[in-house]
Specification:
The complex is a heterodimer. Chain A is mainly alpha-helical. Chain A has 14 helices and no strands. Classes of the chains: A mainly alpha, B alpha/beta.
Chain lengths: 266, 299
C-alpha cells in the first residue's frame, strides 16, 4: 500500500494531462455532431464516391453518420482507442522500469518488501489509473451524447464503446509490464511502446482494407473492439474477449515470474 | 551468531567475472571493512547480500536467514547506503525520508531531525537540486533512520568532505556502541582503517586476506620516490625494509616498511635532489604484501 500510494502521487501528472486533453478533445469533436447530423445524408452520399479501401478502413461501410453512435464511431473513437492505448502502454511499460531506468530501484529493493509486493503495487496502480481514465472519459462522453443527440441511441452499444477501449488499454498495459522486464531505459521504453501501439493500429487498418490480410484481425487488439461491429452487434466477440484476457493473464504472470528471477544491477 | 555469513559465493555475469568462491564471516557488533580496487567485486558481493542479484553458486546468510528466500524479512533490520545515490526527482528530502521510514512501520521523525542536524542537511529542498555530497547525506540519513541492526555501506565516504566524513564516522561509532554491526566497502584503506576492527581484501573477484586491522597497522609501508643528483647513489640505498624497487635513471621508487629514522639516516649522506613520501596505494601494499598468499590461492 505504501508503494501504491506513492505511485498514485508520482503518476498523477501524466494521468491528468492525458485525461484532460483526450476528454476535452473528444467533447469538442462530439459537439460538432449536430451540425453534421443535419447534412448526414449528404455525407453518406458523398462517402460513396470515396475509394472502397478507405471507407472500409474507417468502418463507414457499416455504420451511418446520421446517428450519434455512428458519428462517434467514425470520427472520435480513434482518440480513445489509439491515443488511450498509447497512454496505457506507456504507463504499463514505464511504471516498473522507471525504477531501474532512474536507478531508484536500489532504494526500493533495500526496503523490507518482496519483489512481488513491488510488482503488485505497480500493476494495481497502472490498472487503477487506466480504469479511472476510462471512467472519466466515458462519463463526459455520455454527458456530451445526451446534450448533442438528435435521436435516441442504443445505450448498450454505448456501453460497448466504453468497455471496448478499457479492455484494449488493459491489454496494452499488460504487454507493457512484460516488455519493461527486459527494457528499462526510458529512451528505449518510449519508442518501443509507442511504436508497438502504432504497428498494431496499422495492422488493424491493413486487415480492414485487404481481403487477403483479413486474418490479421486476430493479432491486433484494435480489431477486437472495432466501432462498427460493437455498434451493430452490441457485444464484443467472445473469441476476442478470450484472447484479451489470455494475453493479460499470461503477460502479468510472466512479469511476476521473470521479475522475481531477474538480476537487478543498476 | 554471525551477522553475515558468505559461503563459497560465486557470481558470474555471462562471460564476465563477478566474484569467485568468496567466504566471509562478519560477527555481530563488528565494524568490518571490505577493501578492494574498483571492479574487484565489492558491489557484486553487497548486491548478493541484498538479493538484488542471485548467486550463481554458494550461499549468503544474514542473521542466520537466507538472503534470497528471506530477503524482505532480513531487510527490516538492514540499513543500506548505495555507492551511487539516485533518488526520485520529484521528491523533497523530507518526503523521501518519510517514505523510507514508512516501510519500517516506525516513527522516525525524531531520528530524522537529529541526523539532519548532525549532517547539516536542509530537509525541504528538492533532492534533484542537491549537490552530490548533499545527496550522499540524504542517503546516509536514509540508511540510519530506522536504527537497523546491520548497516551495509557501499563506498560510504565518496562525496563527503573530510569534516562530514569525520562526523559520519563518529555517528557510525555511536551506532556500533549500541550494538549495530557495520559492513562497509571502500577502495581506500587509510580512509576506513580508523574505524574498522577487521578488513577483508578483495581483488579480481577473490578474497586475498581477512585480517585484524591491528595486524595491518604493524605492517605499515610508506612509498618513497627519490631523485638523486648522482646515479651512483641510487644503488647505494639498499637496506632492510625496502621492497618493490623500481629504478629509472637517477630516479628510484620503493616501498619502505622499517623505521623512518633509519632510512633518513641512510639518506643523510647522499645527494638528494628531490624526495616525496606518500601513503602507498592499496594495490601496492596488498599486492606486494600478500602476493605469496594470492599466488598460493591461484594454484
Amino acid at each position: 500500500m505504501i508503494i501504491f500510494l506513492r505511485e498514485l502521487v508520482r503518476n498523477r501528472k501524466g494521468f491528468i494531462a492525458w485525461t484532460v486533453s483526450l476528454v476535452l478533445f473528444n467533447a469538442m469533436m462530439v459537439a460538432f455532431f449536430p451540425s453534421i447530423a443535419d447534412n448526414a445524408k449528404m455525407y453518406d452520399e458523398m462517402l460513396k464516391g470515396f475509394p472502397k479501401g478507405m471507407i472500409a478502413a474507417f468502418g463507414l461501410d457499416k455504420i451511418s453518420m446520421s446517428n450519434i453512435l455512428g458519428f462517434f464511431g467514425t470520427e472520435c473513437y480513434i482518440f480513445i482507442t489509439l491515443f488511450g492505448s498509447i497512454y496505457a502502454m506507456l504507463l504499463g511499460a514505464s511504471i516498473l522500469s522507471k525504477e531501474e531506468g532512474e536507478k531508484t530501484i536500489e532504494f526500493l529493493m533495500a526496503k523490507p518488501v518482496t519483489r512481488n509486493v513491488i510488482v503488485t503495487a505497480k500493476v494495481a496502480n497502472a490498472f487503477f489509473y487506466i480504469l479511472l481514465f476510462n471512467v472519466m472519459f466515458s462519463f463526459t462522453n455520455f454527458l456530451m451524447f445526451e446534450a448533442m443527440k438528435t435521436e435516441d441511441y442504443s445505450i448498450k452499444a454505448f456501453l460497448m464503446l466504453s468497455i471496448g477501449p478499457l479492455l484494449i488499454h488493459l491489454t496494452f498495459a499488460a504487454i507493457g509490464f512484460l516488455i519493461s522486464v527486459f527494457v528499462v531505459k526510458a529512451k528505449s521504453v518510449y519508442p518501443i511502446s509507442i511504436g508497438f501501439v502504432l504497428v498494431m493500429y496499422f495492422l488493424s487498418i491493413m486487415s480492414s482494407i485487404s481481403e487477403k490480410l483479413t486474418n490479421l484481425k486476430y493479432f491486433t487488439p484494435f480489431k477486437y473492439v472495432e466501432a462498427s461491429s460493437l455498434i451493430i452487434d452490441e457485444r464484443i466477440e467472445p473469441i476476442y474477449l478470450v484472447i484479451m484476457l489470455g494475453v493479460m493473464t499470461v503477460s502479468i504472470a510472466a512479469t511476476y515470474v521473470l521479475y522475481n528471477r531477474k538480476n537487478i544491477t543498476v | 551468531m554471525n551477522a553475515i555469513e558468505i559461503r563459497n559465493l560465486t557470481k558470474s555475469y555471462g562471460k564476465s567475472r563477478g566474484v569467485v568462491d568468496v567466504n566471509l564471516d562478519v560477527n555481530e557488533g563488528e565494524i568490518f571493512g571490505f577493501i578492494g580496487p574498483n571492479g574487484a567485486g565489492k558491489s557484486t558481493t553487497i548486491r548478493t547480500l541484498l538479493a538484488f542479484i542471485y548467486p550463481t553458486s554458494g550461499s549468503t546468510r544474514i542473521f542466520g536467514m537466507d538472503c534470497t528466500k528471506d530477503s524482505a524479512k532480513i531487510k527490516m533490520n538492514i540499513g543500506y547506503l548505495p555507492s551511487e545515490v539516485n533518488y526520485y526527482d520529484d521528491m523533497k528530502v523530507l518526503e523521501l525520508l518519510i517514505y523510507s521510514a514508512k516501510f519500517y512501520k516506525k516513527d522516525c521523525t525524531k531520528r530524522i531531525n537529529e541526523l539532519s542536524d548532525i549532517f547539516e542537511l536542509e530537509l525541504n529542498r528538492k533532492i534533484d537540486a542537491l549537490s552530490y555530497g548533499n545527496k550522499k547525506k540524504v542517503a546516509v540519513i536514509q540508511a540510519l533512520l530506522h536504527e537497523p541492526k546491520l548497516l551495509i555501506l557501499d563506498e560510504p565516504t565518496g562525496g563527503l568532505d573530510p569534516l562530514m566524513q569525520n562526523k559520519f564516522f563518529e555517528v557510525l561509532g555511536q551506532e556500533n556502541k549500541k550494538g549495530t554491526t557495520i559492513f562497509l566497502s571502500s577502495h581506500i584503506l587509510s580512509e576506513v582503517q580508523k574505524i574498522c576492527d577487521k578488513v577483508a581484501i578483495i581483488k579480481e573477484g577473490k578474497i586475498l586476506k581477512v585480517e585484524q586491522i591491528e595486524k595491518l597497522r604493524a605492517n605499515k609501508f610508506k612509498k618513497f620516490m627519490i631523485e638523486f643528483r648522482n646515479v651512483d647513489d641510487r644503488d647505494k640505498i639498499a637496506m632492510p625494509g625496502i621492497v618493490n624497487i623500481e629504478k629509472k635513471n637517477s630516479h628510484i621508487e620503493f616501498l619502505y616498511g622499517g623505521k623512518i629514522n633509519d632510512i633518513l639516516n641512510n639518506l643523510a649522506g647522499m645527494n638528494v635532489e628531490n624526495m616525496l613520501i606518500e601513503e602507498p596505494s592499496l594495490e601496492e601494499i596488498f599486492i606486494h604484501y600478500y602476493e605469496k598468499d594470492y599466488e598460493k590461492g591461484e594454484k
